[in-house]
C-alpha cells in the first residue's frame, strides 16, 4: 500500500513488529509525544496480527529542504539520529517485500478498526475505520506534513482491506487542551516552545473537514510528569470519504 498511494511530502513505511529497533524507536517517539508510551507492546501485537497498520512517516528525498529538516529533527531528538532499516514483511495482514533501505522516521500514523468504539458510538462497523496514533516530530510542525499524512490515511481507509466510507478519530477536547496548566505540561515541561498561534488538535482536525460526533468527559487517563493523574476528556470526529 505504501508504494501506490502517493504523497507529495512523505513516504509511509510499515513498522516491523518483529524488530526491537523499530519498537524502541516507536517508544522514543511516544515519549516525545507525551502519550501512550506504555502501549508499545499492545500496538506491536496488533500490528503483528494485522488488525492495526502502523506506518513510519519518512520525508521524501525530493522534498525541498529535506536535509535541513532531518538535521533539525536529529538535533532535537539525538536518540533518534540513527536510521532504521525497512525490514517489515507484512502490514494489515498482507505480505510485502522489505526494501532493506535506511529510513529516518520523523513520526508515525496508524489505520485500523476499533470495534469497541464503533459499538460505543453505534456505528456500522463495516462502513467505518479509524485513523489513530498520529505523531509528528515537533521539529517538523507547521510545514503541512501532518495534513499530508492525514490525506494519505484517508485514501488508505477507502481502499481494501478497509473499504471504509467514513473515517473516524478521537482526540483531546479543545476546552481541556487549551487550559493553561495543560499547555504548560504539554509544551513547557517537555522542552517545546509554545506556538504563538496555539490551536487545539480538535480545531486542526475540523479545519481538515472533520465534524464532531460526540464528547466524552472521562476519556483517557493521563499521568503528568509530576505524577498527577488526570482524566482527559475526548471528542470523537468523523469525515465522509465516499
Structural account:
With 242 residues, the chain is of the alpha+beta class. It is 31% helix and 28% strand. It contains eight helices and eleven strands. The strands form three sheets. A seven-stranded mixed beta sheet has the order 1-2-7-8-9-11-10, with helices on both faces. A hairpin with a 5-residue loop joins strand 10 (211-223) and strand 11. The chain is globular. The mean pLDDT is 91.
Structural class, judged by helices and strands? alpha+beta
| Overall pLDDT level | 91
Task: Characterize the main sheet.
Answer: 7 strands, mixed
Q: What is the number of helical segments per DSSP (H or I, 4+ residues)? A: 8
Low-confidence stretches are none
Strand order of the largest sheet: 1-2-7-8-9-11-10
The sequence of SSEs as H and E is EHHEHEEEEEHEHEHHHEE
Distance between the termini: 19 Å
Essential attributes:
242 residues; 8 helices; two-stranded antiparallel sheet; acyltransferase activity, transferring groups other than amino-acyl groups; GNAT_dom; Acyl_CoA_acyltransferase; globular; N-acetyltransferase domain-containing protein; 7-stranded mixed β-sheet; alpha+beta; 28% strand
Topology:
Blueprint (H helix, E strand, L loop, with lengths): L9 E5 L5 H14 L6 H10 L2 E8 L6 H11 L7 E2 L4 E2 L2 E2 L6 E2 L3 E6 L2 H7 L6 E9 L8 H14 L7 E7 L1 H4 L2 H7 L14 H7 L3 E13 L5 E12 L2
Organism: Parascedosporium putredinis
Protein name: N-acetyltransferase domain-containing protein
GO molecular function: acyltransferase activity, transferring groups other than amino-acyl groups
